[in-house]
Every structure is written in structure tokens, then in C-alpha cells.
């Protein structure tokens, strides 16, 4: 009996040790985060990416009980901020907002400070911002088909305002030129603001512009919308066709999402991803952003967003190669 009692006590002791080991192993997942995190935004304050990043940071802070502090690191077409994030420790306390420009910029540099696929792990998609192809009312076209015909009849004579190299408006124009077999000349500006002023003034006749800024002017008839860069029509302007209805396969909407340094533990990525899902699925929040032309959506998992980044990197890299942009 004494031997059986000894065995039973040993068995209970072993079980207790195993349970304690499991508790220690799971402790980081249960307590993370234990201090404030930083969210790098590699653009100036006030733009779409910055505003969405700040809204998400507030939601994450509320959900995990630690502040997620936004840190703007603009410059060199987002590469400064991304270089900082790529060098950060993969400890779950550094994250960065991402858009197309951050995938395109390394393709346009001889010695980029980061690789968007190798150096980062996905957290989640957050939003899609559709662009509108808008024209000044003085341009005598009322459809994408008519614009293509006009551009072919006047090769190299039609100008289009655009912000910096690799921006959403730049890429949309280049993709349009390639798919429509036209030559609309890009007029680069130092930011969308200056380009937009010249568009409203009629100095440039057309632009691919964020729906959030152009919608009010379309409704006020200061600009004419020819098409939306989304795969299908948007409920905000149901009478405006998707450009893809004329050019099948055309899609040049802008995405916003969040990344972390490569090697960040999966359980930490999942923790932040869960808060982004809550943000993107909130009916009140979705309605508020939809009125601004922003569609909130989250990835199914951090791994899925990593795959999305890879596919977008390849897709836009091909566009850059096709149009002959060389690294500088």
C-alpha cells in the first residue's frame, strides 16, 4: 500500500510540474503587451494612412490595455520609416502602417533599405481606399471609353496630375496607359494637394484621386467622375462605372494595413490582429468611414496578409518593369 501511495504522490507531483511548465510557457501570450507599443507611420501627419493608423492605434490601445503610440517617420517616399521598422527588434512592440507606396519604393531604388517581403510579417489588412478617375468639366469626355478615344486621337497631348513616384495616383495612371494603349502624360507634383488645386482650376484636365477627397467635388459638379478603380461599382456613386467595365482586369485601389518586423512571435501578431478585426467589423465605424469612400476590411489572419503583401509586391513590380521605370 505504501508503495502505491508513493507512486500516486509521484504522479501528482509530475502533473503539477507539467502544469506549472505550461503556465510559464503560456505566460507571454497571457500578459502581452506589458508596456507601450509604437506604430510607425512613414508619411506626414494628416493623410489617409496617418488618420487610419491613429484610429486603429486607439482601438488597439483600448483592447490590450497598453498604449500604441503613433510615431511619424516621413521622408524618401516612406523608405525612412520602413528602414527604421525593418531594423527594430521583433519583440511585438514595433509595428508599421503600410500602403502600396512602400512596396513600390524599393523597386525604384538601387540600394533599398528594406525588403517588404523578407523584412516584415503581416498583421492585417485594415482598409481599401478606392480612387476615382476624375476630369475637369472643360474636358469633352463623359466616359472611360470616350477618354481613351480622345487620348488616342491626341497622343501625348493630354496631361494628368499626380503626386510622387510610386504613389497611388502615379501607379493608376501608368496601369491605365498600359491597359488602354494610350499615352497620357504624367505631371508630377510634390503631393496631392498641389495637383488637386490645379485640377480644380483646370490647369490639368484629369487625375486619379482618392475618393475621400474628390467625392464632394463630384457631387458639387466641380469635377466629373468617369470611373472608379475598384473591381466593381461603389454604393457611394452607383452610377459611376468601374474602370474594369471598360478595361477588364483594371484595379488600382489603395490598401492600408499593418506590418511588424519579421520574426515577431505569431501569438503577438494574432493579439494585435484580433483588435484590428474588431475595429474593421464595427458597424458604426464602418458606416463612418464608408461615407468618406473608405472600405474597412481585415485579413483572415496575419499569414494571409503576408501572402497579400507578396502578391501585391509582384503585381506592382511587374507594372514598374513594363513601363520601364529604372532604379535610381
Can you put this structure into words, describing what you see?
- This protein is α/β, with parallel strands linked by helices and 328 residues long.
- The protein folds into 2 domains: 36-128 and 254-323, Bordetella uptake gene, domain 1 (D-Maltodextrin-Binding Protein, domain 2, 3-Layer(aba) Sandwich); 131-245, D-Maltodextrin-Binding Protein, domain 2 (3-Layer(aba) Sandwich).
- It has 11 helices and 11 strands.
- The chain has helices spanning 2-31, 48-64, 79-87, 100-104, 144-153, 168-180, 192-201, 211-219, 266-281, 283-290, 302-323; strands at residues 37-41, 68-72, 94-98, 120-129, 131-135, 159-162, 185-188, 206-210, 224-228, 254-261, 294-296.
- A 6-stranded mixed sheet has the order 2-1-3-10-4-11. It has a 5-stranded mixed sheet with strand order 7-6-8-5-9.
- α6 crosses α11 (302-323).
- The protein is globular, with a radius of gyration of 24 Å.
Descriptors:
single chain; 328 residues; alpha/beta; D-Maltodextrin-Binding Protein, domain 2; 2 domains; 6-stranded mixed β-sheet; 5-stranded mixed β-sheet; 11 helices; 45% helix; 18% strand; globular; disordered N terminus
Helix-strand layout with pairing:
Blueprint: H1 2-31, E1 37-41, H2 48-64, E2 68-72, H3 79-87, E3 94-98, H4 100-104, E4 120-129, E5 131-135, H5 144-153, E6 159-162, H6 168-180, E7 185-188, H7 192-201, E8 206-210, H8 211-219, E9 224-228, E10 254-261, H9 266-281, H10 283-290, E11 294-296, H11 302-323
Parallel strand pairs: 1-2, 1-3, 6-7, 6-8
Antiparallel strand pairs: 3-10, 4-10, 4-11, 5-8, 5-9
Amino acid at each position: 500500500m505504501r508503495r502505491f501511495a508513493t507512486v500516486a504522490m509521484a504522479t501528482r507531483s509530475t502533473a503539477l510540474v507539467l502544469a506549472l511548465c505550461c503556465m510559464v510557457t503560456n505566460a507571454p501570450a497571457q500578459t502581452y503587451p506589458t508596456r507601450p507599443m509604437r506604430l510607425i507611420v512613414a508619411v506626414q501627419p494628416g493623410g489617409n494612412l496617418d488618420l487610419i493608423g491613429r484610429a486603429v492605434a486607439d482601438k488597439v490601445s483600448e483592447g490590450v490595455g497598453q498604449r500604441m503610440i503613433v510615431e511619424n517617420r516621413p521622408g524618401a517616399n516612406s523608405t525612412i520609416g520602413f528602414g527604421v521598422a525593418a531594423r527594430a527588434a521583433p519583440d511585438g512592440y514595433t509595428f508599421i502602417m503600410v500602403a502600396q507606396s512602400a512596396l513600390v519604393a524599393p523597386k525604384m531604388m538601387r540600394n533599398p533599405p528594406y525588403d517588404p517581403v523578407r523584412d516584415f510579417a503581416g498583421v492585417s489588412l485594415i482598409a481599401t481606399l478606392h480612387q476615382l478617375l476624375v476630369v475637369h468639366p472643360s474636358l469633352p469626355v463623359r466616359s472611360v471609353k470616350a477618354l481613351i478615344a480622345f487620348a488616342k486621337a491626341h497622343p501625348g497631348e493630354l496631361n494628368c496630375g499626380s503626386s510622387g513616384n510610386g504613389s497611388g495616383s502615379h501607379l493608376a495612371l501608368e496601369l491605365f496607359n498600359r491597359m488602354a494603349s494610350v499615352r497620357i502624360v504624367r505631371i508630377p507634383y510634390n503631393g496631392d494637394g498641389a495637383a488637386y488645386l490645379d485640377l480644380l482650376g483646370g490647369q490639368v484636365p484629369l487625375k486619379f484621386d482618392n475618393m475621400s477627397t474628390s467625392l464632394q467635388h463630384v457631387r458639387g459638379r466641380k469635377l466629373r467622375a468617369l470611373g472608379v478603380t475598384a473591381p466593381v461599382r461603389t454604393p457611394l456613386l452607383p452610377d459611376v462605372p468601374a474602370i474594369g467595365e471598360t478595361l477588364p482586369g483594371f484595379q488600382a485601389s489603395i490598401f492600408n494595413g499593418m506590418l511588424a518586423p519579421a520574426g515577431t512571435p505569431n501569438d503577438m501578431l494574432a493579439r494585435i490582429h484580433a483588435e484590428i478585426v474588431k475595429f474593421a467589423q464595427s458597424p458604426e465605424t464602418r458606416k463612418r468611414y464608408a461615407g468618406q469612400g473608405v472600405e474597412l476590411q481585415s485579413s483572415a489572419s496575419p499569414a494571409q496578409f503576408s501572402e497579400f503583401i507578396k502578391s501585391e509586391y509582384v503585381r506592382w513590380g511587374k507594372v514598374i518593369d513594363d513601363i520601364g521605370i529604372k532604379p535610381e
